[in-house]
Amino acid sequence: MERARRSVDVLLIEDEALIRMLLENELAELGHRIAGKAGNLASGLSLAKESDYQLAILDINLNGRPSFPIADAVRARGKALLFVTGYESSGLTADYKGAVVLQKPFTPAQLSEAISSTLAGQIEGTCPGVYS
Prior knowledge:
By secondary structure, the protein is an alpha/beta fold. It has a single domain (9-124), classed as Response regulator (Rossmann fold, 3-Layer(aba) Sandwich), CATH 3.40.50. Helix content is 37%, strand content 22%. Strand 4 and strand 5 form a beta hairpin. It is globular.
């Protein structure tokens, strides 16, 4: 069953500039808007606390540092959270087990489905702050 697609404002945190640009393009093609973007932990954390967004897409590993402080800020604000990674989802801490993780490389269709699953989990309240 295909879920109804809705447009959301996205906070995008990805340390690799080329991947960040590709994600921006894919998100725009899916009808979403970029509310903010960053490539490192400090900038990402600031944006997570201050930007107006509905969904945060976070690379789990930002220049060798885990992005969980950003994820914690996103969760504290009650926003939807989607992790992307070039590694296995086993890199998640216990606090985020069950979160939606999109494995790189991925297709636009996989990105769209991951976003839909994340937003559906937030709406259904399956697990406050962690979306599976």
